[in-house]
């Protein structure tokens, strides 16, 4: 860390000598990636990367540049390129180097960085088992075409010309597998994953069981009759659905005029019982972001309270533009420009018992396709392919495949007919929500 800090200090001195304010972001990663195919490793990859990116601000103009080499000549060229880029940029009075803090902030702790001495042969066997154990479930499982075990050690460092220094080192393990089932001329596939901070915390059994359960359960799936149904998403899919429209919380989108909610702060956008917050250091979450990409220390932010939009994700520039409080959601990679982004999203629990919500027939969606390409954030219209189960209680009436679900997101948020009283986490442990029953969606099938 000290060597990296010394390198970035050189860059800061170069920028200051040119009369510019600046900040730098360094990302450094070491990655191990393993995959299996037909009982053998098909991929064994050890890779490393480092990227240093600079943002300079001079005479009200902003320029960025980056380098993957950290020798003095490369760093000098990077600074000069950023300054040259700034000359040709538009005036940007809202962007400033905002945070001045004398004491270095280190976000590394046992929550995000744990020692792990698992031998390579154990990781190799684990990867081979991601393929073999799912095949052992059923002779109809023809393959596990997508499987992987990854270990990533990552360092992020933020330094600015006002003396602010933030660092964080973390270790992440992740794995996933899939089950491709062929039976009676029909085919079905599903995949599932797990994330952890140590190898032994990966939930191998859950990854295998969930992948097989839904691949097998949806094999005989058929379309529903076209119409409106009570819709329930699994927590993973609900996170994808809500996250697909997360741009509605973008302060940068609002500043640029591309966010359709830009004039909605203080207005009702959802049912009264819905509240949504962003919590960067939530104790039950996998992701832990104690500082943002401007060096601001993060905090919990209420985005929607009882159906009313309270604020957007803001960085210092968007907050200055709207003359509001900075929510400390600055986002910038070494190669990118300043933006905003969320962290861990929490949706409040409701008052309904899940068993009561399941009393009436509902369509539980466990897989979707084409959500991104089939969505328009400006109009709120969406259409995506879906698979799942028509249920009553916990009993499956019919496995469902080959249907299209469509609706309007803005209307759907006001047609939530039930919210469970128990909070569930998605597989990545970054999205937390109760069971939610949606109306206002059309299922196109038979």
Q: Secondary-structure blueprint of this entry?
A:
Elements: H1 2-17, E1 21-37, E2 40-58, E3 61-67, H2 72-87, E4 105-106, H3 120-135, E5 141-143, E6 148-160, E7 165-183, E8 186-196, H4 204-217, E9 227-228, E10 231-233, H5 235-244, H6 251-256, E11 276-278, E12 301-305, E13 308-309, H7 316-322, E14 330-331, E15 339-340, E16 345-347, H8 354-357, E17 362-369, E18 381-392, E19 395-408, H9 409-412, E20 416-425, E21 431-438, E22 442-444
Parallel strand pairs: 4-7, 10-17, 16-21
Antiparallel strand pairs: 1-2, 1-6, 2-3, 5-7, 6-7, 7-8, 9-22, 11-12, 11-16, 12-13, 14-15, 17-18, 18-19, 19-22, 20-21
Helix pairs in contact: 1-2, 3-4
Concise summary:
The chain is of the alpha+beta class and 446 residues long. The chain is built from nine helices and 22 strands.
C-alpha-based Rg, rounded: 24 Å
Overall structural domain count: 2
Count of strand segments: 22
Question: Per the principal axes of the C-alpha atoms, what is the gross shape?
Answer: globular
Helix fraction?
A: 10-25%
What ranges have pLDDT less than 50 throughout 5 or more consecutive residues? none
Describe the structure in your own words.
- With 446 residues, this protein is of the alpha+beta class.
- It is 21% helix and 38% strand.
- The chain has nine helices and 22 strands.
- The strands form four sheets. Strands 1, 2, 3, 4, 5, 6, 7 and 8 form an eight-stranded mixed beta sheet that branches. A six-stranded mixed beta sheet has the order 9-22-19-18-17-10. The chain has a six-stranded mixed beta sheet with strand order 13-12-11-16-21-20.
- A hairpin with a 2-residue loop joins strand 2 (40-58) and strand 3 (61-67).
